[in-house]
Design a protein that fits this description.
Number of strands: 14
Mean pLDDT: 91
Number of helices: 11
Structural class: alpha/beta
Shape: globular
Order of helices and strands: EEEHEEHEHHHEHEHEEHEHEEHEH
CATH topology of the largest domain: Rossmann fold
Low-confidence stretches: none
CATH class of the largest domain: Alpha Beta
Distance between the termini: 31 Å
Length: 323
C-alpha cells in the first residue's frame, strides 16, 4: 500500500488504567521529512512511538504508518520501519559486525545481501574500520552510531529515533545529526523524539507534546513567531541564580529562564519590565553586563507554550501525564 504521507495519526490515545499517557494526539508526517517530537521527559513521546511501531495497542484513535494500519497491520509496519530506542538494543559481548549480522538475520536478509548491507551500514556511520571491536569497548557516541546502523540495515523508508542522543556529548550529537540529514537526503522519513532545543531546530517540522497532549505544531520558525511576549536578554555580571529569582518575582515579567550565561525574560510590558529589573538588580548590587530585546528562541517558545498549557491545566483541574 502506498501513500504520500508517511505517518497519519488521528486522536491517538493510550490509557494505563486510570492514567492517560497520550491524550487524543493528531498529526501527519510527509515522506522524506525530518519530523521532531518535542517534549520534556515523561510527556508521552515514547508511548506514542511504541503505538506507531505496533509495540503497544492504542486505547482509542487511529493511525497509519507507510499506509498500514497501526492496529490491524503491525507486521507490515515492522517491515517498513527502523526503530532506535532510548536504550540501544545492542549485545555488548558481540563485535560491531556481529551485532549487525544478528539483526540482519532478524530482518530476514539473505546471506549475500546481509554481508553487503553490513559493510554499507558500517561505512555509512563511520565504523567500518572498527567492525571487529567488541561493542562494550566502544564509546557511547560510537555505540549510538552502531545502533543507528542496526536500525537502517534493511533500508527502511521510515525511521523512528527515540531520544537517540540522550546522554551523548555535544560533538557526538552534532555528528549524529549529520547522519540523520544524509538519510533524509536519500528520501528516508525520520521521526525523532528529543528534549534538546538545539536538536529541535534541525527538524523540518515539530509537534510539542506535554502531559500527553499535543499543544503546538509547526516549523521551528512558526513556533517561535507564535510567542506572544517580547523577550529581553539580560546578562548579569554574577549571581545568575539570584538574579533569576529576583526577576521572576517582578509583576511585569511573565516568565524568566536561564539562557546560556544570561537570562531570557518574557514580558508583554517590555519598557516597564526593563526598568523594573534594572532597579531590582541594582538594589541587590547585581550589575548588568548587557541588556536588550531579542528574537524569541525555540526554547522561549517552548516555555511560553508550556506555561499556556499549565494555565489550562489549572483551569481544568488535575491533568494527565505521559511516558
Amino acid at each position: 500500500m502506498q501513500t504520500e504521507k508517511a505517518i497519519v495519526v488521528k486522536d491517538l490515545t493510550k490509557d494505563f488504567g486510570k492514567f492517560r499517557a497520550v491524550d487524543r494526539v493528531s498529526f501527519e508526517v510527509q515522506k522524506g521529512e525530518i519530523f521532531g517530537f518535542l517534549g520534556p521527559n515523561g510527556a508521552g513521546k515514547s508511548t506514542t512511538i511504541r503505538m506507531l511501531n505496533g509495540l503497544l495497542l492504542p486505547s482509542s484513535g487511529t493511525g497509519a504508518v507507510a499506509g498500514y494500519d497501526i492496529i490491524r497491520e503491525t507486521d507490515a509496519i515492522k517491515q517498513h520501519i527502523g526503530y532506535m530506542s532510548q536504550r540501544f538494543s545492542l549485545y555488548e559481548d558481540l563485535t560491531a559486525e556481529e551485532n549487525l549480522t544478528f539483526f540482519g538475520g532478524v530482518y530476514g536478509l539473505p546471506p549475500a545481501r546481509l554481508q553487503q548491507r553490513t559493510a554499507e551500514a558500517l561505512r555509512q556511520v563511520g565504523l567500518l574500520e572498527r567492525r571487529g571491536e567488541l561493542t562494550r569497548n566502544l564509546a557511547l557516541g560510537l555505540r549510538q552510531r552502531l545502533a543507528l546502523a542496526s536500525a537502517i540495515l534493511h533500508e527502511p523508508p521510515i525511521l523512528f529515533l527515540d531520544e537517540p542522543t540522550s546522554g551523548v556529548a555535544p560533538i557526538s550529537r552534532r555528528n549524529f545529526w549529520d547522519l540523520i540529514y544524509s538519510l533524509a537526503d536519500k528520501g528516508v522519513t525520520v521521526l525523532v523524539t528529543t528534549h534538546y532545543m538545539d536538536e529541535a531546530e534541525f527538524c523540518d517540522r515539530l509537534v510539542l507534546i506535554y502531559q500527553g497532549r499535543l499543544i503546538a505544531q509547526g516549523t521551528p520558525r512558526e513556533l517561535k513567531a507564535a510567542v506572544p511576549e517580547e523577550i529581553i536578554a539580560v546578562f548579569p555580571d554574577h549571581r545568575l541564580g539570584e538574579a533569576l529569582e529576583l526577576i521572576r518575582k517582578l509583576p511585569q515579567v511573565a516568565e524568566a529562564a536561564v539562557f546560556g550565561d544570561g537570562l531570557h525574560v518574557a514580558t508583554t510590558q517590555a519598557p516597564a519590565a526593563e526598568a523594573a529589573l534594572k532597579e531590582a538588580l541594582a538594589a541587590e548590587g547585581i550589575a548588568i553586563r548587557r541588556l536588550g530585546r531579542v528574537e524569541p528562541s525555540l526554547e522561549d517558545a517552548f516555555i511560553s507554550l508550556i506555561e499556556q498549557a499549565e494555565a489550562g491545566n489549572r483551569d481544568r483541574g488535575p491533568g494527565a501525564g505521559g511516558q
